[in-house]
Every structure is written in structure tokens, then in C-alpha cells.
């Protein structure tokens, strides 16, 4: 048994084998469940990181059926027949940390899962930019000011690039620092704001 889990939610049988294969490749336990039992299934799983991958055949309808309780913890990836920028913006707004299309290459699907596991989000940059621009039109409650009040100048630079959708590697290149230094700044931001991951950081900074 591995230390981390992929919880596949509402998956059709023909996709189970594919996920079983690459869960083994990245050394994750694979657990199958449905939306109604996801929380109890997760609580019975082994300790470690749990990523919930939700199969959404009709995303706009299916999202409305998901319990808000599910998104209070863990990491969530949407898995659906097709993706576009508008749909990815909706996923970001709904609390997902990444989105995968059925048609994506297996290597790309694995990369998305690894990014989410490492604390990044996995969406198309255009979707992230559109989400941020949309949120800028909504008056802020001051959460972004709260973040600025407790962070250093360098952490604020890292935060700004995170909110523009850059990965740790891209931030390191942009600021001419090592990836490990970026990770240190990111962890400091999380600690100071009591936030656990990028998805929560996006939601907090935009609210």
C-alpha cells in the first residue's frame, strides 16, 4: 500500500482500468466511490494526501449535485469528456484544483495529478487569467490586504505570480531564484494565512 490516495468519484467502469494503471505508476492507492459516499470512503482511507478525481459527464449539471462539504478539505480534480476555458473557470470558482479531459494523453493526466499533489493548480493559463480578471470586477472584502499585511516583499512577489497562474518553476525563473526558495516562500504564505494550497489561496485572495 502506498501513502497517498486517488479517490475516483462516480467513474464509469471503462475508465477504471486506465486510472488503476497510472495510479500504480505514480505510487498512489486507487479507491473507487461515488459522490454520496466520498466523505466516508475518504475517512476510511490510509493516511496521506488524498486527491479526489470527480468524473463529470455533464459538468454544468453535475457540479450542482456535489456537496459543498466535499470541498472543505483535500484536493479535487474535475475529469470530464471535454474542456474549454469557460468550463475551467467554473471549475476554479467551484473549488477544484485542476481539470483533466478524457482525451488528454495519459502523460498529461499524470502531470496534472502530480501538479495538484505538489500544491500547484492544473488549469489552462487562459482560464486562470480569465478567472482573475472576472474576480477583479467584484469588490474585495479585504482578504488580499490581510495577506499583504503579514507577508514580506519577496513573499508578495511570489504571491502575485501565483495569482497570475504561474507554477513554482515559472516563478523561480521569473524571480531568478531556486525552486526550493519559491517553495519556502509559498509555505511561509500558507502558514501566515492558515491556507493549505493554491486553490484555497485563489479563493481567499479573490473573496
From TrEMBL:
<dbReference type="Pfam" id="PF00196">
    <property type="entry name" value="GerE"/>
</dbReference>
<dbReference type="GO" id="GO:0003677">
    <property type="term" value="F:DNA binding"/>
</dbReference>
<dbReference type="InterPro" id="IPR000792">
    <property type="entry name" value="Tscrpt_reg_LuxR_C"/>
</dbReference>
<keyword id="KW-0805">Transcription regulation</keyword>
<keyword id="KW-0238">DNA-binding</keyword>
<protein>
    <submittedName>
        <fullName>DNA-binding response regulator</fullName>
    </submittedName>
</protein>
<dbReference type="GO" id="GO:0006355">
    <property type="term" value="P:regulation of DNA-templated transcription"/>
</dbReference>
<feature type="domain" description="HTH luxR-type">
    <location>
        <begin position="144"/>
        <end position="207"/>
    </location>
</feature>
<dbReference type="InterPro" id="IPR016032">
    <property type="entry name" value="Sig_transdc_resp-reg_C-effctor"/>
</dbReference>
<dbReference type="InterPro" id="IPR036388">
    <property type="entry name" value="WH-like_DNA-bd_sf"/>
</dbReference>
<keyword id="KW-0804">Transcription</keyword>
